[in-house]
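Q: Convert this sequence to structure tokens.
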Amino acid sequence: MTLKIQLFAALAHAAGTKELSLDLPQKATVGDLMQSLAQQYPDWAPAPEHVSVAVNMEYAPMSMTLQQGDEVALIPPVSGG
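A:
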């Protein structure tokens, strides 16, 4: 399946784009997605412990199974005051 991945803030800046397209096998999980990103983009891929993943506008655990057409967003930590 092919998923579109939205990148925000520092992740978009590091990747040089706000959106990626990623091919994953059927029944892939959010964890599989993160592992695939780390392999394909080793210079900037976020560590799973340093990013929140949202699927269809809801935060998702690494164990969540992805479906064709899911809207995935990677959100880095933010700080401020």
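Residues 2-75 form a domain with the Ubiquitin-like (UB roll) fold (CATH 3.10.20.30).
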